[in-house]
Write a structure and sequence with these properties.
mainly alpha; about 90 residues; membrane; 4 helices; elongated; about 0% strand
Length: about 90
Protein backbone atom coordinates (compact mmCIF):
# COMPACT_ATOMS: atom_id res chain seq x y z
CA UNK A 1 0.00 0.00 0.00
CA UNK A 2 2.76 2.44 0.93
CA UNK A 3 4.71 1.62 -2.22
CA UNK A 4 1.70 2.55 -4.35
CA UNK A 5 1.29 5.83 -2.48
CA UNK A 6 4.98 6.56 -2.83
CA UNK A 7 4.90 5.85 -6.58
CA UNK A 8 1.88 8.09 -7.06
CA UNK A 9 3.43 10.87 -4.97
CA UNK A 10 6.71 10.72 -6.91
CA UNK A 11 4.88 10.79 -10.24
CA UNK A 12 3.19 14.12 -9.39
CA UNK A 13 4.64 17.36 -10.76
CA UNK A 14 6.85 19.61 -8.63
CA UNK A 15 4.05 22.19 -8.20
CA UNK A 16 2.00 19.64 -6.25
CA UNK A 17 4.95 18.86 -4.00
CA UNK A 18 5.62 22.50 -3.20
CA UNK A 19 1.98 23.40 -2.57
CA UNK A 20 1.21 24.58 0.98
CA UNK A 21 -0.99 21.63 2.00
CA UNK A 22 -1.14 22.35 5.77
CA UNK A 23 -2.25 25.94 5.12
CA UNK A 24 -4.87 24.74 2.63
CA UNK A 25 -6.16 22.21 5.18
CA UNK A 26 -6.36 24.91 7.85
CA UNK A 27 -8.29 27.23 5.51
CA UNK A 28 -10.64 24.41 4.51
CA UNK A 29 -11.37 23.46 8.12
CA UNK A 30 -11.95 27.09 9.06
CA UNK A 31 -14.39 27.44 6.16
CA UNK A 32 -16.26 24.27 7.14
CA UNK A 33 -16.51 25.30 10.80
CA UNK A 34 -17.80 28.70 9.71
CA UNK A 35 -20.46 27.06 7.56
CA UNK A 36 -21.49 24.73 10.39
CA UNK A 37 -21.75 27.75 12.69
CA UNK A 38 -23.99 29.67 10.26
CA UNK A 39 -26.25 26.67 9.65
CA UNK A 40 -26.56 25.98 13.39
CA UNK A 41 -27.31 29.63 14.05
CA UNK A 42 -30.16 29.79 11.56
CA UNK A 43 -31.57 26.40 12.55
CA UNK A 44 -31.61 27.46 16.18
CA UNK A 45 -33.79 30.47 15.31
CA UNK A 46 -36.56 28.14 14.16
CA UNK A 47 -36.10 25.93 17.20
CA UNK A 48 -36.38 28.90 19.56
CA UNK A 49 -39.49 30.15 17.77
CA UNK A 50 -41.12 26.71 17.91
CA UNK A 51 -40.36 26.14 21.58
CA UNK A 52 -41.51 29.64 22.50
CA UNK A 53 -44.79 29.18 20.66
CA UNK A 54 -45.40 25.85 22.38
CA UNK A 55 -44.42 27.17 25.80
CA UNK A 56 -46.78 30.16 25.82
CA UNK A 57 -50.06 28.20 25.54
CA UNK A 58 -48.85 25.68 28.10
CA UNK A 59 -47.96 28.40 30.61
CA UNK A 60 -51.28 30.14 29.97
CA UNK A 61 -53.15 26.87 30.52
CA UNK A 62 -51.28 26.17 33.75
CA UNK A 63 -51.66 29.82 34.85
CA UNK A 64 -47.90 30.26 35.13
CA UNK A 65 -47.39 33.20 32.79
CA UNK A 66 -45.00 34.83 35.28
CA UNK A 67 -42.46 32.04 34.51
CA UNK A 68 -42.25 32.88 30.80
CA UNK A 69 -39.53 35.58 31.11
CA UNK A 70 -37.15 33.24 32.98
CA UNK A 71 -36.29 30.94 30.00
CA UNK A 72 -36.20 34.00 27.76
CA UNK A 73 -33.60 35.67 29.97
CA UNK A 74 -31.60 32.45 30.20
CA UNK A 75 -31.65 32.22 26.39
CA UNK A 76 -30.44 35.80 26.06
CA UNK A 77 -27.58 35.14 28.50
CA UNK A 78 -26.54 31.94 26.69
CA UNK A 79 -26.68 33.74 23.34
CA UNK A 80 -24.43 36.48 24.70
CA UNK A 81 -21.93 33.88 25.95
CA UNK A 82 -21.91 32.15 22.54
CA UNK A 83 -21.49 35.50 20.78
CA UNK A 84 -18.52 36.45 22.97
CA UNK A 85 -16.91 33.03 22.48
CA UNK A 86 -17.37 33.27 18.72
CA UNK A 87 -15.85 36.74 18.60
CA UNK A 88 -12.84 35.44 20.53
CA UNK A 89 -12.38 32.53 18.12
CA UNK A 90 -13.00 34.52 14.93
CA UNK A 91 -11.83 38.13 15.52
Amino acid sequence: MFKVNEKVWKSLPQQVWSFHWPEALENFLELMLGLVYVVAKYLSVGLVALTSLSELPYCAHERKMQLVPIPLLIGIIVARIFKDATLELYP
